[in-house]
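Deviations from the work plan: none for this task. Representative record:
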Amino acid sequence: MAGLRVHSGARRPPGPDPVPLRALPSALPTDAELVAGSVTDPAQFTALFDRHATAVHRYLGRRVGDLADDLLSETFLIAFRRRAAYPPQHVEVRPWLLGIATHVVQGHERTERRRYRTLAKAAGQLAEHAADPADTADRLDAQALRGPLATALAGLKPRDRDALLLLAWGDLSYEEIATVLDVPVGTVRSRLHRARRQTRAALGDVSPLGDTSEETR
Amino acid sequence: MNELTALREAGPEAPALSPDARSAARAALLSEIDGPARRRRPSRRTTLRLGAAGVAVAAAWSAAVVIAAPDDPGSPASSVTLVDFEMPTFPLTLDPVPDGLRPAFDGAGDGATIASYDAPGGEDGFTLYVAGDEPELGDRDVTATEDVSVDGEDAELVRYSETWCTGDAPGEDCHRRTSTSLTWERSDDQWVTIDAYGRYGTTTRVLQIAGSLVDRPQPATLDVGLAPAGWSVRGFKMGRVLTLVNDAYEQQEVTVHVPLPEDVIPADEVRSSIMGPIGPQLDVTVHGRPAQLVPVDTGYLDQRGWYLQAQFPDGTTFVLQAPGAFTQQQVLEFAEQVTHNP
């Protein structure tokens, strides 16, 4: 059997229409297109859940623990209800969702703070036990930081903590943080400056921090 | 490793998203997408819960769809232990205080952030704001700005006008009011704004006020000497309202408020004038004066509570609303320690 040959500019032979090609990944709608499309076709919004639920839950879970299961739901319900107001020219969908998640967490600030205190206490109790000789130096370093980090997070002002955790755990840029928190970038800088300074101070002697350079994304 | 890397690598970890939790959240979203017609109307009890929390979470579980509470509420305290309590303070004092004005404070658990000094009659006064960040100018009609100096620090003086309403209903008894605002970073991370109107709104008076600020904390107008162990301040407003909250169950609160004279209920009409009385009006004594205590159904998550109308030694009436976790004796002990310094 002879191999197929492709002729540039060849006309399609007469006959039935060809079966549509299956869409390639690059042909999938973007997040912004899904949000825009969901205004008239709400079902499109479920694709955003499928894409981002894990990331949003992880961000929430680091902040509020098991309560993240409920807040994940709440975040997407709020996002869905506000989809018509989504500002694609200002921020992408993942930061937008993390911003909504942050506002949702604000309603549970005490729960969040209590979690950090509990973690700090648990880390302190763990540190009282002798270290396993099999533990690597990196693991021991991380272990030593857990308690002071949790203590530091519990002691931050809520809005400073929001900015810090959107940067550290959400990987948002300064501009994205400013957009989702609806504050000027200068305010984000001052909040981050204060939060990072307090976190460094709380880590104190246990910290192996070497590079404390400011990230100015 | 900087602190960001430390947070990423050694900060609190998230629990895994379980298939069940993911399915439930997705089903809740699908239910919302399908529209309200398929959702069951939430019960009264749940509606109250949602209203109080200010947020709503829809959770769908297979065929049944219900509106669920927004968080893991734990359970309300069934009893409390009263302990000594120190109210948060406002960090600054005016020395001297112009015309002997008395402040009313607004704030939350980490301290008061607003001190309002209003002259009788409401035509003259000023408000101090303290914040950790540079404040943003709201929606104001700015007519002039001027760069000035306060204790050697650069400051911005802004004159603006805004619509000011004093009526009971929104948009009622409104007029244009001209004010002067002065903002500067008084110390590291302490931004102060003075918002002055009437005779205090001149540049000279505002700068005088700024120059008289000293680092001396002021106690709140409304103070409690006791609080349930494990509870904290949720907020206080206008020197008239103070709310404490159970840190382990945020829907459980105790509130003290000083009603306006026209809102004080006559002593013999307390029970018939309040919502949800479930017992007789009890005649008790607080601060050596007659007071009225009524057990009530708060109408909220089946919580019972207490409604106490009492008076301070100067005769000013206050109202204490406490959950049923308080015993009758604890309500009275708590009330005896409430003070008011208007």
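Chain B is about 15% helix and 40% strand.
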